Amino acid sequence: MIGVELRKLLRRPRTWVSIGLLCLLPVVVAVFLAVTGIAPRPGQGPTLLAAVLGNGALYPAAALGIVLPFFLPIAVAVQAGEAVAGEAAAGTLRYLLVRPVGRTRLLVAKLVSVIAYTLLAVVAVAATGYVTGVTLLGTSGQLATTTLAGTALTPADLAWRTGVMVLYIGWSMVGVASVSLFLSTLTDSPLAAALGGLAVLVSSTVLVALDAAGAVRDYLPTRYWLAWVDLFRDPVAWQDIQAGALVQTGYVVVLLGAAWANFATRDVTN
Amino acid sequence: MTPDEGRAPGGEGAVVTRGLTKRYGRVTAVDSLDLDVRAGDRYGFLGPNGSGKTTTVRMLLGLVYATSGDIEVLGRSMPRHAGRVLPEVGALVEGPGAYPHLSARANLRLLDAAGPPVAGGPLADGVGSRGSRRRRIEAALEQVGLADVGRRPVRAYSLGMRQRLGLAAALLRGPRLLVLDEPTNGLDPRGIAEIRDLLLDLNARGTTVFLSSHLLAEVEAFCTRVGVLDRGRLVAQDDLDTLRGPTGRTRVRVDDVAAGARALGLPPRDTERPGPFAGEGDLVLDGTSVADATERLVRAGVRVLEAVPERRTLEESVLELTT
Prior knowledge:
The structure holds two protein chains of two kinds. By secondary structure, chain A is mainly alpha-helical. In chain A, 70% of the residues lie in helices and 1% in strands. Chain A has one domain (2-265). Chain A starts with a helix and ends in a 5-residue tail after the last helix. By secondary structure, chain B is α/β, with parallel strands linked by helices. In chain B, a hairpin with a 2-residue loop joins strand 5 (68-73) and strand 6. The two termini of chain B are 49 Å apart.
């Protein structure tokens, strides 16, 4: 069943269109930066963007920073919202279930497919970011890059930091996906599931910025989203990254549990 | 697991329910249903829209969970043994479902690959194995008349073609039991006849067919046994011939109605009250047997074209049962 879901994912035009669009935005940004040479001042604009000019190898990280606040979560929420509700809306859910595919198996396969999509998207953005960064922005002479602290990074150092970043962002997105996946088992409308997931994110972003909500801030899903920036400090500041991974794990476990409990016991009437 | 695990002792009914009930809140959609579909039946499950047919079908297939009561499909209880029952069941529920951007073949391949590669009924070819998939897909498409659809995506199909694709999906693994909900929806008369012939052929080769429909004519033309559902209750379940039982009256067709009426001692035709005069040359007689009527008519020199005991149509029985 997992293989079938992956085949469905890969054969679907929308998968490639959405990933293509995700990759396009950082490329456009890079073109503007390269042509004008005007970098945002540090502390302004998308994360890390101030540091990439003349430092193209850092651009994968900057590219993810560009798509992270809106674009990537939207794509992931839409994909996850599709999972069960999309099958219901297409009328294929009932035929899968009487084929028969066990409900738990179906849900697991959907989850794997959403995770695969997320990783595909994050890796694709990072890869196009690297190519664009190196070709358009240059690599500051040698391959040596500097951290935000100004110390030198070897290519190997940069590679593993970028790898961990991809995993961390991927995991944050799985957190997003689990909200929409849960909603996807509640409703037969894929749009409602996707929008519901986004509504949670927007609320979370608002509350994170609100001092009055300080008591719950550390448990909000978007609180540590940008913690991966700490990977590019020297030494790496792991504290927020660990907290972020833990918070996401909590959301993933609870929401997927709820999704399973709901889907396994509900009447399929569509 | 032995092959017989979960099988009920005794004879095998294709679909047996006892006290099957489904409540949505305070609304009782299906009320203590005792279905009895025997292996080899062509069972017609009749009922007006909203009478609970689809809910029942969904419960039989394990999509909707019953509030109370037992379900046995192919001798095993559902939904507990869904994993062993459903591979031998082909189903079409409330219209076909397919991924619109893929072709018919790609859709069937995905569906076939999604489930377990085991089991299959008397017509299963290659026992549902992966290796026989291509052949089974071609055979199923051929059966429903979609063999030459090519690579067009399902998005471009007409309603009738989608319906045929849904049937092909149901037939893919040579099921022992076909559960079809309104299978001729969207088909033209020729398509309906084709599908009926196909189902008759499958039934003759051992497939039990459970056909749910609100179309009396369809059920009358195809089924051997009928269950009639009304507002969630089963109001009749019998052989079609019993439901279409004789009315006790005799219908004769003669070439001269006026002479016939005189010979039988009936009052002359009155345009206000048709009485025994039905149609152009037909007389409907109460309390006169076919033998008596023909004898008296022939004695009087009236030519008899046809004389039969009158039967109720299925429509009349059902209307009587459901009002």
